[in-house]
Write a structure and sequence with these properties.
Length: 383
């Protein structure tokens, strides 16, 4: 029994194939004016309508982009392109319109991913990561160059100095960080003294706990712990502040006013941190040795007077100078990385969080790397 359809064989817009004519014929005006009716008509057609062997487009009177899209939906892009190659009843304008619609809507199948060896995938990821890190290093070096040129040109133009902004940043990065620096270094100094005393007592050399605490904090731990705290506290704040301004288009407004964002936002932060980090490092050294002195007094019966006497006799001032010399370098790098990551923010809140995390990780890595290189250099120089 032949299958019957719920719609008639003819309509103002198409004629379905029948027993006499096995051809689907499109008629009338396929335009935006008739879009709703044409959409309902196409939706009521059987699913295999486009598979009709014969399709006649020559009786179309008017076709626009909306109608061409419906024809493409009815016949499919591939079938429509085949018909346009052999159909002679269409004008050149309609043929060109339908060809462009079919070419635009035709979706090529996604190529199947080539099978690769897991070892090659690992090498590929390593290569991509190394390329990204190399690009980050180039960006960082370029930003360092811009900042140094801005600092040098600012020294020659006293009118461009911003003492108010520098003082505000000193308060935020320095004064507000004193309690956490003192607390952390005091506890670390106490732990180092306790561990050192535990080991040295075995050899009857517990008196050298004083030298251990003094050497470790004057040369390494004082500046290193302070720089890591600044990386987590200050660099993240710099990135979040500048990133928020970037997402709110405030930096674009600064440029529109003819001002330089580098001089307005970066230089005050760099100068302030280069002032506060050496001061915080000095406080950290004192606090760490105070923690060690407390452990020596309660666990080793070394009085504070003896502690200071041993400190003066055994520890030279060059150890303090070597430790404090690293502080401005760490401050410059931490401030530069924090500001650079802020300028990289793309505009969304998610981007601010991502670059804030990235700035903290980069600052800690760079601080530890530079500290290790400096320690090796001092050791080779015999300092």
């Amino acid at each position: 029994m032949a299958q019957t359809h719920s719609m008639p064989h003819t309509s103002p817009f198409l004629r379905l194939p029948d027993t006499q004519h096995n051809t689907l014929c499109l008629l009338g005006d396929w335009t935006l004016e008739n879009y709703a009716e044409l959409r309902r008509l196409i939706g009521s057609l059987p699913a295999d309508t486009a598979k009709t062997p014969g399709i006649d487009l020559s009786q179309l009177e008017q076709v626009d982009t909306a109608g061409g899209q419906l024809i493409n939906d009815l016949l499919g892009a591939e079938r429509l392109q085949q018909l346009l190659q052999h159909s002679s009843g269409l004008s050149e304008e309609r043929r060109t319109l339908l060809a462009r619609i079919a070419g635009t809507c035709r979706q090529e199948p996604d190529p199947e991913p080539a099978a690769s060896h897991p070892f090659l995938e690992v090498l590929e990821r390593i290569g991509i990561s190394m390329g990204q890190h190399a690009a980050h290093v180039v960006e960082l070096l370029g930003f360092i160059g811009l900042t140094l040129s801005g600092l040098i040109s600012g020294l020659l133009r006293p009118r461009s100095w911003r003492p108010t902004a520098i003082a505000a940043q000193i308060e935020q990065t320095g004064l507000n960080a004193v309690p956490i620096v003192v607390l952390l270094t005091f506890m670390v100094g106490a732990v180092i003294a306790f561990l050192g005393a535990t080991v040295l007592q075995t050899f009857g050399a517990s008196i050298y706990t004083v030298d251990l605490v003094a050497f470790s904090f004057l040369r390494e731990f004082g500046v290193l712990l302070t720089a890591i705290l600044m990386a987590g506290r200050t660099a993240s704040a710099f990135t979040a502040q500048i990133g928020s301004m970037k997402s709110n288009e405030e930096i674009d407004a600064i440029r529109a006013l003819g001002l330089n964002p580098l001089e307005l936002l970066v230089l005050p932060r760099v100068i302030a941190l280069m002032i506060t980090l050496p001061a915080l490092t000095f406080i950290a050294m004192l606090s760490g040795m105070l923690g060690g002195a407390m452990v020596c007094a309660f666990s080793l019966d070394i009085s504070p007077t003896m502690f200071l006497s041993l400190l003066r006799e055994d520890v030279g001032v060059q150890h303090f100078l070597l430790g404090i010399a690293n502080a401005p370098v760490f401050a410059f790098l931490v401030a530069i990385i924090g500001c650079l990551e802020g300028f990289k923010v793309s505009g969304s809140a998610e981007s601010v969080g991502e670059h804030t995390t990235s700035s903290v990780v980069q600052c800690i890595f760079v601080v530890i790397l530079v500290d290790a290189l400096a320690a090796l250099f001092y050791m080779e120089m015999g300092w």
